[in-house]
Amino acid sequence: MNTNLLFLFIIVLLFIPMFFNQRRQKRQAQEMQTLQNSITEGDVVVTTSGLRGTVVDSSYEETIDLEIAPGVVTTWVRAAVRDKVKPEADTTDAHPVDGAAPDSTDAATPRPVESSSSAEPRPASEANSSASDTTSGRGGPFS
């Protein structure tokens, strides 16, 4: 009888994770279906392939039209929509919490790239002169 109880206990332990995994998958599928049905014109969405576009027509039941560039409209299956992009808040007038003005030397500000060498570039004949100095004495690395 102990072996029967052990066998039953092992079976129950194997089915508990499967049960919870199934519930999680059903919940995710329901959330995705709700998202795809809530798409309206003007929403910015991301497809499963990573393409970002603005919905210009969502009147069809199975497809939507996305504008991926000005004047470029493509038709997609609704199931290809992975996420709806939330509009970002305007941060141009935002100040830090302490009320101080933003620092003018912000890390996000692009800076010019400076050259690491101060010497002028050498002509091609001089630039390759070091390559011709090989131990074989033939005059080049590939000859």
Q: Topology, pairings included?
A:
Layout: H1 2-37, E1 44-47, E2 52-57, E3 63-69, E4 72-77, E5 81-85, H2 124-127
Antiparallel strand pairs: 1-2, 1-5, 2-3, 3-4
Note the overall shape. Answer: flat
C-alpha end-to-end distance: 84 Å
What does the main sheet amount to?
5 strands, antiparallel
Strand order of the largest sheet: 4-3-2-1-5
Uncertain segments are: none
Per DSSP, the total helix count is 2
Name the average pLDDT. Answer: 76
**Shape-level CATH architecture of the domain at 2-85:** Roll
What is the CATH class designation of the domain at 2-85?
Mainly Beta
What is the succession of H and E elements? Answer: HEEEEEH
Total number of β-strand segments?
A: 5
Describe the fold and architecture.
This protein is of the alpha+beta class and 143 residues long. The protein has a domain at 2-85: SH3 type barrels (Roll), CATH 2.30.30.140. Helix content is 28%, strand content 20%. A five-stranded antiparallel β-sheet has the order 4-3-2-1-5. β1 (44-47) and β2 form a beta hairpin. It is flat and about 75 Å long. The chain starts with a helix and ends in a 16-residue tail after the last helix. The model has no long low-confidence stretch (mean pLDDT 76).
